[in-house]
Specification:
360 residues, alpha/beta, seven-stranded mixed β-sheet, two-stranded antiparallel sheet, 9 helices, 14% strand, globular, pyridoxal phosphate binding, decarboxylase, lyase, PyrdxlP-dep_de-COase
Length: 360
Amino acid sequence: MVGSVVDVSLMDPCEKVEALPREFDPKEISCPITSEANGVVEENGKREIVLGRNVHTMCFTIDEPEADDEITGEKEAYMASVLARYRKSLVERTKHHLGYPYNLDFDYGALGQLQHFSINNLGDPFIESNYGVHSRQFEVGVLDWFARLWELEKDEYWGYITNCGTEGNLHGILVGREVFPDGILYASKESHYSVFKAARMYRMECVKVGTLISGEIDCADFADKLQLNKDKPAIINANIGTTVKGAVDDLDTVIKTLQENGFTDRFYIHCDGALFGLMMPFVKRAPKVTFKKPIGSVSVSGHKFVGCPMPCGVQITRLQHINALSRNVEYLASRDATIMGSRNGHAPIFLWYTLNRKRI
């Protein structure tokens, strides 16, 4: 293989691949550590993270060439071999992708022509920045589609394509905190960990609410918790599919509970629809998530029900709320209203492409 380059895209994943040299083989692990507690050991009440399977001895090292060296055929062949082995492991692991609710049935071959471009949607999707290589026209098209899905007019919504469902939760809860700076965050104990991460990041007071056996929020317990904090507004995370049980919080009962306990016009509801938010609108007699109800924001994952080769998501909120969060950034010639600064410009194109191809 000296002096040659292997075209990995043409390789059969079942084909026998030349073994890597021992020093580069990730299977050669010295003194592997058992992962009996998933890498977490607790002793004398102290929690310690222990390196388990993801130790440095499993990584593919980087062997930089000398300053006066050119990349040789041997180096190209080595890298091609590494990638071929990695691709083979991806094929095998994807066959047994049980436990994660991802849609892996997609084909984005037509978008391969765009991979050579650095597409960055930094700034507000609705305000052109001074970075010209972007995909805002695709992003806003996707956002318009989701706004229609959740019954919010074009001139009444704001949103953006996120990196994942977690970022959607971080943004939705942040908007709620900016609308009600002294608000208390309420979330059922079955809520995604990112909700409680948001509370820590934003230094928000957070109240965990009990759940029914189904996993949905217990509104009787919610009412009791509200009565303990009647002087402060409520910021609520409503689950549209919990992580473990797939429970859907009863949005109508949550709203009724707020109103009956004196919180009319003093609440903000963020709907975490990462799991079922894109599925429920197309299921007959399923509970309805719509901005015709007094909710503040909805977020979903784009790589689950729709299917996408990279993690992504969608966050939609009411336009009237975003002014409390946004700040102008002069050097971008745009507005900062997102969690991330630079944003993946390829993800909106993938979502636009697949939504145009699906009959839903």
